[in-house]
Amino acid sequence: MGVSLDGYVAGPAGQIDWSAPDEELHRLHNHLTSQIGVHLCGRRLYETMVCWETAERRPGLADFELEFAGIWQAIPKLVFSTTLDHVEGNASLATGSLADEVARLKAEPGGDIEVGGPGLASQCIQLGLVDEFRLFVSPVVLGGGTPYFPPLAQPIDVELSETRTFAGRVLYLRYMRTDGRD
After folding, report:
1. Does domain 2-12+22-177 have CATH number 3.40.430.10?
2. Which pLDDT belongs to residue 167?
């Protein structure tokens, strides 16, 4: 997820306009997204991203945006919501608990499970379901908003495994858990 220098994924009023990727960063997102086996998302992220299901109908999109749309459309998505009664495209509504659904998906063959959206990601972090953290740190200090990390009962040990700096001054940081759990 995109994160401000002071650790927020959205500003005090929910704004995320400060985190829009430039072409170079978008192409990395395209590559990373193409490696996903299934994407877990909450209702708000699903509603934000559903526009990619019909992106090819919108005039004026750049080639890298159309590429992302094709990648996004192909990925199975599992939506966690208590208010939605239907979803579009290659998405389905979760019927089990978050922990049960993740356990089921881990037992199936396929690519990585990615969690998107701060609310659902926070739940996964608190349940110990996250093995890797990918932060796209933007050079902005928001002073408040939705935090990247939830309150934790105990620390999570991680090791930096990858970094990359983009021309738009965004810093990509990839951390792997090292606390010895499976």
Report:
1. yes
2. 86
